[in-house]
Amino acid sequence: MNKTYQSITDPGCERGGSTLLQVDDLMISFTTLRGQLKVVENVSFSLQRGEIVGLVGESGSGKSVTALALMRLLGQEGRIDRGTINLDGQDIMSLTAAEMLSIRGREVAMIFQEPMTSLNPVYTVGFQIAEILQEHFGMSRRETMKKAADLLKLVGIPDAQQRIYDYPHQLSGGMRQRVMIAMAMACEPKILIADEPTTALDVTIQAQILDLINDLRSRFGTAVLLITHDMGVIASIAQRVIVMYAGRMVEEGPVQDIFAAPRHPYTQLLLRTIPRVKQKLARLEVIEGTTPSPTHFPPGCRFHTRCPDAVDRCSSEQPALTQISPTHRVACLRSDEPHFKPGSGK
Questions:
Q1: Stronger pLDDT, 338 or 243, i.e. the higher one
Q2: Which of 20, 68, 289, 291 could lock 306 by a disulfide, CB 3.0 to 4.6 Å apart?
Q3: Which residue, among 80, 57, 97, has the nearest Cα to 251 in the 3D structure?
Q4: Counting Cβ atoms within 10 Å, is residue 59 exposed (0-12), middle (13-18) or buried (19+)?
């Protein structure tokens, strides 16, 4: 934890390829008027140094809650009932609130979905970046403002020396997202969690933001957990993908394997929703129905009520996440059937 500040403009170094984050059997619940409500169950995954892992699923699948648990930002109503979160050899579950403050930003940082709700409207963007540097490194005001300008330049904001005096409302949506990335990268964290970083941005700006995240990952060796509902985003940037549905992991594997041969019907249906250039006049495919609420999770496989491949036992047996290859896991009762084609309805 005695990290000293190194100029963000210096060439970064890759930090190796070992396991940086290990999450095992994570269970998360929230206190409600109906009692304790389980929203995430049996989530286990790892993140390697310098790797980009996509965490994908529809709204309500548990993606963002999982990410907030990694930061220990669940609030008073949320709690981790079971499981371990190991960050580079540290069990963050055992850390005090004060110790977690030193971890956030410095070891693991998060980009939130909507910059306008994350940036303080009454302070300049330079001041907000400078605050982070002062808190973690005790730098002088003059030094922090210089570093703030360097950070804005790093993330592609022109006239950075002048822009540090701008307020959030003076910037476009894409530039505000770049400011959020600059703030997250201020301490060169080991892990960057990006929660829907391209939502509400036009296609061109989305591509620029994803390229920026990938460039920073390559430059500083930062591991990235990218949360999205868009499989197209996963295809463009991630090496590995975790698919979640109704608070559970349903599939995990290398991106090329998942896209070439998905083994869970939900993954297959998500892939079909990606717009195709050659089918620009065709109607976009959708997944019928909605993700169930944690108050009404169905018995058995939680996807069986929407699944075109469901059989009788799917409504009563809960599938375990099973290893089908050294790098590929799936939670589907039919995945071991030799002629099963997910999403085919057969």
A1: 243
A2: 289
A3: 57
A4: exposed
Distances in whole angstroms, Cα of residue 234 to Cα of each of 14, 194, 205, 221, 259: 22, 12, 16, 19, 10
Q: List the beta bridge partners of residue 195.
A: 227
Which backbone phi and psi does 64 adopt, to 5 degrees? -65, -35
User: Rounded to 10 degrees, what is the CA torsion of 298, 300, 304, 309?
Assistant: -170
- Better-scored residue on pLDDT, 41 or 10: 41
Q: Give the pLDDT band (50/70/90) at residue 9.
A: very low
CA atoms within 13 A on the CB side of 193: 23
Confidence of residue 278 (pLDDT cuts 50, 70, 90): low
Average pLDDT over residues 133-161: 91
What 3-state class would DSSP assign to 268? helix
% of residues, the chain, pLDDT over 70: 92
180-199 mean pLDDT? 92
**Distance separating alpha carbons of residues 274 and 328, to the nearest angstrom:** 22
| C-alpha separations of 139 from 58, 147, 148, 182, 223 in Å | 42, 10, 12, 17, 26
CA–CA gap between residue 41 and residue 160 (Å, rounded)? 44
Average confidence score pLDDT of the chain: 89
3-class DSSP assignment, residue 91: strand
Report the amino acid identity of residue 10: D
Residue partners of 179: CB distance under 8 A and separation at least 6: 115, 119, 125, 128, 129, 152, 155, 157, 168, 171
Strands (DSSP E) contained in 112-180 are none
Kindly state the average pLDDT of the residues 153-168.
94
Surface-to-core class of residue 205, CB atoms within 10 Å of its CB (0-12 exposed, 13-18 middle, 19+ buried): middle
